[in-house]
Amino acid sequence: MKILVINCGSSSLKYQLMDMDNERVLAKGLAERIGIEGSVLTHKSEEMESVVIKRDMKNHKVALEILMNALTDEKHGVIKTMDEISAVGHRVVHAGEKFASSVLITEDVMNALKECIDIAPLHNPPNIMGIEACKEILPDVPMVGVFDTAFHQTMPKEAYIYPIPYEYYEKYKIRKYGFHGTSHKYVGLRAASILNKPINDLKIITCHLGNGASITAIKEGISIDTSMGFTPLEGLAMGTRCGSIDPAILTFLMEKEELNSQEINNILNKKSGVLGVSGVSNDFRDIEEAAQKGNKRAQLALDIFNYRVRTTIGSYVAAMNGVDAIVFTAGLGENSATNRKDICDKLQFLGLSIDDDKNNIRGKETIISTEDSKVKVLVIPTDEELMIAKDTEEIVANII
Ligand code: ADP
User: Fold this and answer.
1) Domains along the sequence of the chain with CATH
2) Residue 45: enclosing H or E segment and its boundaries?
3) 216: helix, coil or strand?
4) pLDDT for res 274
């Protein structure tokens, strides 16, 4: 079965065509600057050089048409006709409290996603646009929605209710939702498989450390707490996001700097995190380089980032009353041996130790803890697209 995985941003569209018989990626690509001048699609099919297609893409539907042409192209295509696509899996950021797992997209599901626009104004509109465009082009192909929030719907109330007047939860559904769920679920399952233990017997802490970063406590296979909250702004310090700070800072700054809500939002989402502290970059590679050259604020940014990762791990050990495995994933988690070492070296009280040689890897599934470490530490490259494709396959298998 061939499944197309789609991930739509406001001006971008990422895709992957997978053959589920052998979990191979047949082709993948990215359309950028949709709706803006200079739109471009970069398409890479298996065993071929990437092709760059520069064409006006006034909306996501046009981008989809161009990518379908690329998939079926005589030269760099990988399928003969679009009929070979059995199903489409869509990444959707926010499903509110409506869905705790992936679902077949129906009219009711679309209405539920539209209801969530209020709490995910940046993310859900492009996701919805992508689904609607796809339905126009492939009207008879079943589509599945895979939600970033779904995996965290198992959190207990004490983890997801904020200590503010309860009426705001009832009125506006203000609560912790959590994000990166597809990634946390994927690496949690992989960790159990690599350790050769049933996930139901494990307490796992998964650290998704990229530009956006979050940590999840997975107890017996389900998420019981996660560091992102009502929005992806809460929790760890990130590339440009502040993570958890005293909420009183907002009103203080708004008054002192005469900022409106949009401006303060912009500062906390786009100008904070390791970029805000270092003043260097939001890319950890640049910050590591600057720190090595003696830039003190770059070093401080790294220290703050690692400190928060470590203390969040510590709090999740408390939440689960123990931990069997810690997993590092995403851009930084998969690639930065120095960050992993710094974080883990100060967790020795857990009986955890890192093997420096094993830790010296990038982007490869590896157990990096020593043989006698009580807590296993793993690097597992995330694969959200594969997880989306697997969920899609499972759901459509019952209907086609
Ligand atoms: P997102 O999907 O949230 O944009 P990614 O998971 O792609 O983020 O991670 C991007 C981040 O990973 C970049 O900011 C970069 O700093 C970091 N990164 C990638 N490779 C390395 C590396 N070799 N060393 C340190 N950091 C890295």
Assistant:
1) 2-147 (3.30.420.40), 197-384 (3.30.420.40)
2) strand 40-45
3) strand
4) 97
